[in-house]
Write a structure and sequence with these properties.
Distance between the termini: 45 Å
Length: 165
Amino acid sequence: MKEVLLLQFFNPNQLYVTFNSHLLQTDAVIGRRYTLISSDQTAEKFLYIGLTYAHDQITEKRDAVLAEWCMEAGICTLFVKVYLGDENRKAVMQQEYRVRSKLPLALEAILYGDRAFLMRHQYLYCAFIKVCFESSYSEYNREEHWGAPMDYILLTSLGRSLPLL
């Protein structure tokens, strides 16, 4: 049976954000990490922001996207990691398809959830987003450029009030 993906839109009312107690909402650019957990059953998204990933929140039943602000060749980059799995090739291929279709929504959720930080550090609107797909099958391991935060914030701002440059 072929899976049909419907066009999905980010709903800020289904995003729950938790900041690590040691991190101020607008501090720490380099090393600032995001753990986004999504529930397919409820469409809720849980974003954890801190200096470490919230590994304790990741389970097999939930999709997770990890992201971190890093310096790469002197340029601030949002480095995103997505694990595709290691079951069998067909399952990994299906997971890659699913992840690619939902990743714009995940990036939008991360950036919306940390919008106060982006307002404070507006130069990050133009930073690179690099996505690293990881699997036990080498043909699925790759890094790709996925635009800039501004691309995903513009998606959210259609119909909502968000700060733009």
